[in-house]
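Hello again,

I reread your note about wanting to compare the complex against the isolated chains. To keep things tidy I'm splitting this into two emails, and this first one only covers the full assembly. Below are the input lines as submitted, including protein chains and any nucleic acid or small-molecule components. They are followed by the predicted structure of everything together. The single-chain runs will come separately.
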Amino acid sequence: FDETQLHSQALIVDGENLQKQIDELATFSDTPVPSVTRVLYTENDVIARRYIKMLMGLAGLSVREDAVGNIFGRWEGYEPNLAPVASGSHIDAIPYSGKYDGVVGVLGAIESINTLRRSGFKPRRSLDIIMFTSEEPTRFGISCLGSRLMAGSEILLKALETTVDNQNISFVDAARSAGYAQEKNDLTSVFLKKGSYAAFVELHIEQGPILEDEGISIGIVTAIAAPASIKVDFEGGGGHAGAVLMPYRNDAGLAAAQLALAVEKHVLESGSIDTVGTVGILDLHPGAINSIPSKSHLEIDTRDIDEERRNKVIKKVHDSAESIAKARGVRLAEFNIINQDPPAISDDSIVKAMISASEELNLSHKLMISRAYHDSLFMARVSPMGMIFIPCFKGYSHKPEEHASVQDISNGVRVLALTLAKLSQK
Amino acid sequence: FDETQLHSQALIVDGENLQKQIDELATFSDTPVPSVTRVLYTENDVIARRYIKMLMGLAGLSVREDAVGNIFGRWEGYEPNLAPVASGSHIDAIPYSGKYDGVVGVLGAIESINTLRRSGFKPRRSLDIIMFTSEEPTRFGISCLGSRLMAGSEILLKALETTVDNQNISFVDAARSAGYAQEKNDLTSVFLKKGSYAAFVELHIEQGPILEDEGISIGIVTAIAAPASIKVDFEGGGGHAGAVLMPYRNDAGLAAAQLALAVEKHVLESGSIDTVGTVGILDLHPGAINSIPSKSHLEIDTRDIDEERRNKVIKKVHDSAESIAKARGVRLAEFNIINQDPPAISDDSIVKAMISASEELNLSHKLMISRAYHDSLFMARVSPMGMIFIPCFKGYSHKPEEHASVQDISNGVRVLALTLAKLSQK
Ligand SMILES: [Mn+2]
Ligand SMILES: [Mn+2]
Ligand SMILES: [Mn+2]
Ligand SMILES: [Mn+2]
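Full-complex prediction:
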């Protein structure tokens, strides 16, 4: 038995224990089961982080955290000077979402380490398991905050100096309250040099229906769709809902309603099934039944696997916002493209390693595109990247009904373990 | 000098002091000046109530409160067995509104008493100054809560047993925390018998631009438009904003946006300038940028001076809600007409008294319709009713820019004082 090599039969995942951990992590939530709400640097986030560090410790990993709370657990390889191989995901959860998004890629990666250890394997390159800070944009409106900063975003670095949440708490104060960012100016310490990792692989639920529909165990991601997010504010005259007659109104709420429908229209006009657009946030001010909205705020998410096509949608949405404002006599006070990220392409040799791993484990698999974005999108800027998808119930995600079976999760963990093993020996 | 008669020259209003009171009352607010936010039974509402009772005391009125916190200050007449004459309004203020709506009719009525006393007048019928509880629907979604209950609404009585605010605090618990509703089943004690008052007159800012535009001092209200309010809930599939492709969506947020625009369309179709409709509240759930809305909630206000025409709008909005739900594959989970009140007509003899008072005071005046509703709408069910309007800046209301000049307010108080004097002698 060559302990640097690995036989697929030796990879035994403790699925039952992994499910227990998933269920336990889900209880650290601001909303009751089956929903999960875990927001960056809140009490439940801090408790959940403690839980992850404990599991990393039990898996024999040496744990460190960076200045924004990205957590790293390292299994040192026998050639520790080589660039390590990494895997990881996030555990933050948007309001009223489910317990598998992100979590499978963190707890599953830790279990992949346990699996490799049990098999007797010893890695050549070190293996890092990463829990990324705030993949979800819930609190500060910034998605993939941790991985984006690791990837060296100077724009984000700058933005974090002035970013506040909707309670006007600054990012830095929030981070400090959770024990991070102790030195104000040390956030560049989060940056990773290009080449810091030899490979990065993320395990994740598909968040789409394809694998379940086709009865396939493993999705091998070849590209991640390019997301953009936009914040829009309209300002109008407001006034009393009884007293201001219709011709004298400049209703900021109706401008928002029109723009929401325009987003849908422009997305459908793209003609491609791959273009999507969503208005997930629409707030009216003052928000009283007998008051004409004087302000409205929308947050728009649009994505495509084709960056140019997506940017065309953004352009049309902007044109609509301007023409709606003009027609209604309201002011387009803000049209802010918060992020407009390019898509990411998986690394060929990682794709090959994932395919071989699936084949050796006799698991059906297919190449596919990720329509949701992930920390992998940003890790791709500093490391060769790949992603492993597993089926999930009806493609549901970001809601309490989100579910993946123990069997499918265990299959994913086995493919991840074997892929990490292969990549670590290179 | 006959002290039961009154000469218009003797009516001296202390406008400066009245303005001071208006400014002081505005500081009892949950939001900073110039905005006012004063919500039923909150700390600032309780403080403001204390302030009103103090001013009533200083005006020599004997104060009592009923079980929901309607406050009455009485100046006993020399024939105390006759039905009294009353005046009053509200001091609650919707979020981020102004300092004159309602307040002018409470502080102004108290000042009308001071004015009458200073003139040496003695009333035959007793005079009651009333501060009504929660004219605005802010906290419990029920407009004119105090006057509606005084008018004997059995429907409201029943509803209050189960009504909760958006923090799930029951009406009864909230009332108790403010010192009211001490005995659970005593809310029928709020009911007034028909004929309890010989007349009710409310002083109020116009909340429209007509008096200011035409340079007229006094509006004499002949009718109050009929308001209706509707709550609507849509429920859809929700899901991840990246992963769920457009054809598979059932977006409850877009259904809400469509209905908001349909409300505007149906109102405009009425063909009458007097028909208005507003969506002041539109909430999305879960309210995250990367989540397709799975639920939406709208609150719709529609009014007209023609009840039938308004009800036709409601019917069309209902039809639209159903067809939008069908087309989008979302569920119309609720379409609840919260109230659908008939209009109120002012009493002839009160209108005549208001006209005579204006003429004797040499103030320009015109007959007009109230497009906003008021506690007078409900007092009209138990008492002959009339309303006095004064000009306000650009017709603004329900926003911080709401303003009425000291001169216009003082004119309104003089007309009110003289009208109350006339009515109390009848
Ligand atoms: Mn997510
Ligand atoms: Mn995720
Ligand atoms: Mn009002
Ligand atoms: Mn009012």
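For quick reference: The mean pLDDT of chain B is 95.

B.
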